[in-house]
Amino acid sequence: MTKGELVSAVRNYLNRPNMSSDDIGLLIGVVEGELNAELREHPRNVKRSSLAVPTDDGILPLPDDVAAVMRVFDDEGRYEQYPLAAELEPYGRGYIDRGSVLEVFPHPEVGRTIYLDYHAYLPPLVGDPDTNWLSRYHGGVYLYGVLKEAAVYLKDDSRLALWEQVFARRLAVLKSQGWDQNVSVSPSVRVR
Question: Beta strands of the chain (E only): which ranges?
C-alpha cells in the first residue's frame, strides 16, 4: 500500500472525501512514531552499515535512520559499549553512542572501515508513491493505526474503541509471527 492508497482508504473508511492529505499525513506520522516504538527490534528493521573513518578523532557520523546501535565491529573484532567491563580496561576497544555520531576508542586510522549493526526506524511515508516493508506487507496495521488516530483527531468517540482494538489485534499478530524468537521449528512428519 502506497501513501496515496493509504490516504484514499482513510478517506473512504471515514466517509470524508474532503479530508486534506496534510491532515492525514500528520496522522500517518503519529502512527509511524508508535510503530517505530512497537517494532523497533523487529528483524526487518535490523540493518548493517559500513562506515569509513573520516578523521583521526574517532568520530563517525551515524546513518539518519539509526534507532539503536546493536553491534560495532571491524576486521579485528568487536567494540564494546562504554563503560567497558573491568576486564577490558584500560586497553579495551569501545564506543560511545552520542546520538548522531559514534565515538570509537582507541581512535582508528582514517579510512578504516567500521561496521555497524543497528535497529532502524521505518522509512517514513512522505510522498504519495512511498512505501516501506510494513505498508507493503501489513498495510492494515497502518490503516487501522491511522483510523485510530483519526478518531482522536475528529473526536469520534464512538469509533475510537473499534479502531484501537483492530489496530492492537493486527499489531499483535504481526509481532507474534515467529519474529525475534530465534527458535527453529522442525516440520511435523506424518507416519502412516
Answer: 46-52, 59-61, 66-74, 77-81, 94-97, 101-105, 113-120
Chain centroid to Cα 166, Å, comes to 21
Q: Kindly give the interhelix angle for 157-175 and 139-153, rounded to the nearest 10 degrees.
A: 150
Kindly report, residue by residue over 72-95, the tens digit of the pLDDT.
999 999 998 887 655 656 667 889
CA–centroid distance for 186 within its chain: 29
Pairing of strands 94-97, 77-81: parallel
Classify 106 as helix, strand or coil: coil
Side-chain-side CA neighbours of residue 78 (13 Å)? 9
Helix (H, G, I), strand (E, B) or coil at 66: strand
Q: Over 20-52, what HEC string results?
A: CHHHHHHHHHHHHHHHHHHCCCCHHHEEEEEEE
What's the rounded Cα separation, in Å, for the pair 56 and 111? 9
Please state the pTM of the whole predicted model.
0.79
Residues linked to residue 78 through DSSP beta bridges, in sequence order? 73
